[in-house]
User: Fold this.
Amino acid sequence: MKQMGVFWSGMVGVDEVLRVEDTQLGMYRVGNKRPEWTRALRRSVQAACFTTARVFALTEGGQLASLPRRPFENAYTLALPQRPYRALLLVQENPPRIAALPHSGELLLLAPPEERPTRVPVSQHPLWSGCVAPNQTVLVSDEAGQVWGIQKSQVAFRWEGALGGILAWALHPTQPIVAGAGVDGIIRVWSFPSGKLQVALAGHRFEVLQVLFDKQGDLLLTFGSDAQLLVWRWRESQLPRHYLRLPAPPQNALLHRDAKGELWLLTSAEMHRLDLNKLEWRSIAIQTLTKKEAQQR
Assistant:
């Protein structure tokens, strides 16, 4: 979810991540400092997602740009309702289906290049964040703390989430389990789709910004606005196993697991590869292009 400045978009288990800075977009391979694909738009990007073929960027004014990643393919733009947006979620790769979360209680389902979105009334409160769960279920949290499950363009279920909403989500790699990072500083783990609370974990001093399961699903990593990375054996204990304090601005960071199962923390200007056995990290300073360079590529 994008708030201000630089933010990242990525899918767990995929080696590529998308970096957004104001009007500029860059596609990076995790661990490489230079972008493999770049574009510059005219308006600031509020949210973005991508497939193997295209990047979708939602800009101020409700313009959804569909940008080809391969040469000699056409870009196009769709007009959405003009309002602030919190997130774009990739529901399906091919053909692409996307969920847009405006700052309202309504979810928009898109099937580019079709222009008219399907409007799904969800909550009386503005939506805060979301993720795509099994069976293409879109999970969203509203600002009142409720979690809603949308299936086949309608609300299928609801459960109690976190006071103030969920900031980030993580899906267990092998089991129907989902974790949420709460505005209230609590990490909650639920069964899906029942919403039965498995465990609630408290260790961060402030709000929790990111959450991620490791490749086996035994460890849960959380990163908070206190700049602490906590590692939990979430089934065994309600206390963190250990923690790292990273010298990095926490806002808009992304916890990511690549195709090999390696763990990364991506911040505005660096990629940090995490080694939980040695309790250390290796940092890679990324290269960015100027707006003129991005337009020329």
Observations:
- The radius of gyration is 18 Å.
